[in-house]
TrEMBL record:
Main location: membrane
Leader sequence residues: 1-25
Location(s), subcellular: Cell outer membrane
Keyword terms: Cell outer membrane, Membrane, Receptor, Signal, TonB box
Recorded GO CC terms: cell outer membrane
Superkingdom to which the source organism belongs: Bacteria
SUPFAM superfamilies assigned to the protein according to its UniProt record, in alphabetical order: Porins
Identification of the protein by name: TonB-dependent receptor
Annotated family: Belongs to the TonB-dependent receptor family.
Pfam families attached to this UniProt entry: Plug, TonB_dep_Rec_b-barrel
InterPro entries recorded: Beta-barrel_TonB, Beta-barrel_TonB_sf, Plug_dom, Plug_dom_sf
Positions of the TonB-dependent receptor plug domain: 62-165
Amino acid sequence: MRDNFKLNALSAAVLGAMFSTPLYAQETIEQEAVNLEEVVVTGFAQSIEKAVDAKRLADTISDSIFAEDVGKSTDQNIADALSRVTGVSVTEESGEGARITVRGTSPSQNIISINGVELTGGLGGSGDDARSDNSVDLSSFSADILSSIDVVKTAAADQNEGSLGANIELNTLRPLSLNERRLIGSAEGRYNEYRGSSDYRISGSYADKFLDDSFGVVFTLTADKNSIREDRIQNAWEEGYYEIGDKTLSAGGANRTARDINGNEIRVGLAAENESEVSVAADGNGEYFGVLGKQGTYFSTSSNERERTTANLGLQYQPTDTTDIQLDFTYTKQKVTDQFISLNLGYGGASPQAEDQITPANSPTNFVTEWNTVDVENRTLLRSYGRGHQGSTNRFEGERDLTTNVVSLRVEQDLTDSLTMAFRAGYSKTEDELLDGKGITTATWGTVTVGDLPDASVDVDAVGYDCTAGTCSYNTGSSFATFDPAYAAVTDVNTRFNPYDLQANHVGNVTWRTNFQTDTNSNINLDFDWEVDKFYFTTLEFGAKYSTREKDVQTQNENLDTGVVLIDRDSGDPAYVTQGMQNIKLGQFVDSAAFPYDDFLDGLDVDRNQAWVNGWPLADVDKAITLLSGQDPNTVGRSLRDDGTRNIATDTMAAYFKANFEFMDGRLTGNAGLRYVRDETEATGYGAASFARQNWMFDAQELFVERELANTSKGACPNEPWAFADENGNPVDGDDLNANGTKYFLFNPTNADSFNGCWDWRLTHAYVANNPDTYPVDANGNWRFLDVDGNPNYEVNRIFAMDYNGATPTVIQNDGLPASIYDPMGFDPNLWLSDRNLLPTVATNSEHFRHFNTQGLIYAYGDRTTSFTGPLGNDPIAQTRSASVYDSVTHNLLLPSLTLNFQINDDMIVRGAVSRTMTRPQADDLNPSLSITEQVWDPQDQAESGNTQLKLLTSDNFDLSYEWYFGDANMFSAGYFHKNIKNTPIQVYSFYHYESIRDQYDIEDLNVLIPHNNTDTALNSNCQVERSIGNFSADNDGWGLDCRDILVEGPVNADKATTDGLELGYTQMFDFMPGIWSNFGVQTNYTYQYSETSDVVTGDGRIIEPLPLPYTPQHSSNFTLFWENEKLELRLANRYNGVQLFADHAQGGIWKDATNRLDFSANYHITDKVSVSFNALNLTDETHRTYLVMNQARIGVDADGNDIFMSEDWGFNGDTYSGRTVGQWKNGRQFRLGLRAAF
């Protein structure tokens, strides 16, 4: 077997290297078979020597890590070890490295292989947002099985295609490279300070040679358990905006009034009249000032246990000097058990209440103004309280199994003295499974409503937040509700949410989560190397590859509320229909266990002088399911739906030619080559539209256009009550229960047809539902409001009117519920004409207006097209419209490359490379489906789309590197790289409308998106109408007749993105110093990266301004100080990552603050064979934080109906506003103590 490329014969034994802190090796018997003059060194110095030798001999710009002895390092995790390499950043999950980014490319854009086989991976993202991407979770693999890791940053034609940043090559041990038998065992105890848990890690490895050293075996087995705690504050920022109105704004609509951060009342579009006011320019046709605000805040603690088993069996056989056969089996299984607990506060979807403005109960105080504070300069709502704000608690538990099997076969054969063949076959399969993860969320919607709170706002203990002082304070109620013991109705309450109230909190919903993914990759490679040594060419290489990659995915996350069918998990038959969630109180399913921690959220940005920070009563998930279903919680579940299913399969064929050459007696060497790649991709999935299944939705288009129920020229609708019948046709009362425990009023009444083509005042006028004296008709149906001539005056207390005279009906009045209405009992038609202010009025109550139940008057008009009490009942098709979708695409690509290496002298090398590389879009981005979700509480519905026609990403690369080797294991290097990336996929958010398909139960496709136009309504377009919500008093607006906005998130190819970077590295062994100072050494590196995408035009015509590439900090560095002698090794390592773009958001970009992590490790050699190690991780107890920066944020609509957008500067820049915290979390410190022995 011939050696790899070399610059020239080496005469120096140990050379310094620029590479990041390596995993450390000590076993001198495990020297790889490289042609180097051998000098025996140990410990950290040996790792440096090996890595430097590999770097200097490489024909690419690369770094190597030698990993035979990782147990002594803090970087036992492969991802954490790689993060020490220049240009490499790590993303953490549960406090440890999981995925890596290289030179501005995402984790999905770099190929990671083991023994030449591209690794498959599991789902990315959290359980409720799991996505199928192309990244690999390196935390699943133990580094004990590895011999070395190569990070190859420049491309050559013989390299596997698919990486934009670097090819990461994981190599297991080749047993025939050993000089003698190896038997090593280690054990380690671990302690997580934050969680207070103790864990373990054990590892064993055996290697030996047989048959006259022609056959070798290596077997490594590792098992470990790691327990992590993560406390987190997560803010969900509204994907729309909040409207701040002028201080004089009256009740109704979505507008709030507010103060600025200096306490001044805000005037919108009007001049300030005194020093206690501040004027702001108006958006929205002069009516309001648009600001960004929180939709909700979630305070959580997650207890995560990871149990991992990794095994590797390597067999190597060399029957002759010209044949080498290597067969490797790698197995890894990771079981993740997660316990998630959270307290949630919700501020979105609640309009300001009339009761909180200037009322007799509040005297001159406008509590809407007092409860809201705006940072005007940064358009941010810093303080928000409200009687409509709510809260809940959540608990989720699940177990995830992630298993990967890899088989690799490599046969190398010298066909002649100058021609070598290498045959490689590989197989990798990852199975990711989350079975029946289940959770419970509490609520108060069935026990405490807004109308139950005191009229006087000063007596309301409002839920909300206040971030005006820097550290945020979050308020839950503290008082307990009082209930009537006979009827269970609330009799006294002053808050919507007190987490300690065991009677007010009830079952809100149950979550069932099921995720599956099978990721399979198979490949065959045939390569030839021909030594020519003519015409300056040293070697010609050529070969071909065929591979297939298939991802079969099913994800389902479903919230179960009233009316959902549970199935028997064994038979699949329906087992129970969920009913009466509001009747199952927290006191019935509370867990007997106490809150797990007494330092919850310590160190995070929250005022901890609040009771809830010390914990709250925890819900027991199994108890709740048992009470809800009457079944064993382990025997019931949810049936899988098609709309979470997708399959993405890609067949790849590739061929290459590469020529290696040298000039100037070997001082100038290099290679040039060309690789051809053909991808054929087929994608299948299910498009789906999921609608609200509740029965308190109203469709104004159906009521007023199709049924003309606002047409006063029609006769009045019958003055009769709604009628209901049971399954046998017998008359029943609406509040009676059917066999499933559902009240009959939730179904269509038997006399519904009598209420078509007539006019119904219950839909067009204001009244108080529980007070017949406020109705505009008397008991006999006679109109109470008459004009001076005795004719009906329909204008009085009217809030909705339509003109039916034209071809298309038009709206002429559509108001929300006013704070008061004229009293029919004292109405005087003369005063109506002369001075209406003298007419007596009656206060309204939104709780007694558009009720969907028998407390109201219009419940039978509910839209049941998607309700569980509608035509199809509990059949899932009632709420979901789905259709299978298919798409395919073929790509052909040529990838040229050129690499040059010039040896200036014995100590200095300059390398340069130009190449074109490619990578493939993420699997889920290729899913051809459109998934729509009706979000009745949000300003718009949500949708996600894929795009099978996404182009392959390509990057034109230029690299230049200078390396100076001075002394033993000392080195300085400087490198520059440039990447011009084309077809970068980015997620864009586009506003659309969509067709009305609620009454289409069998659709062929889901091509339903309509271009967004603010002038479109359900009157002039076949669009999904903005359905109105019944029962919940937050709906103070008029009837919804506008087309419902939908915000669609989907991938598109940006024109291009560029990345420029500078990498500096320095390694110095201070062996020239006297005494103990000679045992010191230092390694440091620094990476600067600047990246930028091009402008992107969204589906609704917006231009998304350039942003940097995600996970690309401008500044990152590593610094390691170490000291070692024959007995003791000490090392202090610091890793810094600067500010970086973290994720996208409908209103801009989410950025991550800089982090600085410090680790310490020590190893003491008791004997030559036995050593003890100590590691301390995250000594600085680092806290992570992300924040929202506006980029084309939608903040209003102008007078012409055009959207108004606003952008801020990048998060890199120091003057950028970073006050909109999205997330903040910490994982604490970890300590390890280990023992290692060689036999």
